[in-house]
Task: structure prediction
Amino acid sequence: MHIKDARTYREIVQRAEDYLSQRANPQNVIKYSRYFKDGYNAWGNDLTETCEVMKQILNDYPQLTTEHLIELGNILFQHGKYEMGSLAIMLLEKRLNECNRGIFDGLKLWFDHGVSNWAHADYLCSKVTPWFLIQNIVGIDDFNSWRDSTSRWTRRAAPVSFIKITKTEDPQKLLGFVAPLMTDPERVVHQGTGWFLRELWKVHSELVEAFLYEHRNTAARLIIQYATEKLSKEQRHRFRKDK
Result:
């Protein structure tokens, strides 16, 4: 199969759609919709059903390379159904050991043009993107274009991906990277950045507190709230804006 064999991609997408749509569970859609403020377009499948499709695809299309999976993922994310995005991630996760720098660049395209909810974003940032850092395929600076993306989910992805390396990377470099995100306009970026800072604080509390104090007058308040969640009420008072 050639990388640009669109007919094969359509065949795979149709196969996944048929399997998952036939097992739709509207009650699950109702159940999980409350966790997605921007909407939840799903069939309501159980994770085991999406996993079964993933296994079938990898078994029946052994010629799929990681490059193919990136291109297929672009199509699956554009489909719109939540399970199709999950399928794209699960397929690539199974072949993670075969990934290279080109796949990392392909993941940015997923975030820029496909990822549209916190669940897919955080799944990728916990299971996939940190692998490239841990394997030294990319470094912190390789996320600069992610931080500067027009997509709020891509910008969120950078600090959340760094959570896995808070114990091994230079904390000053990590803080320098996230500094421009402290005034980002998007709530989901505030949440991701605050989450990262809270995790970094567990390892380098004094440095993070000094950083937060420096940015207390300009940073989004939600970032400060998330980052100082483990502090006492009296300690959090220190990071209020100056009057």
In short: The chain has 15 helices and no strands. Residues 1-98 form one domain.
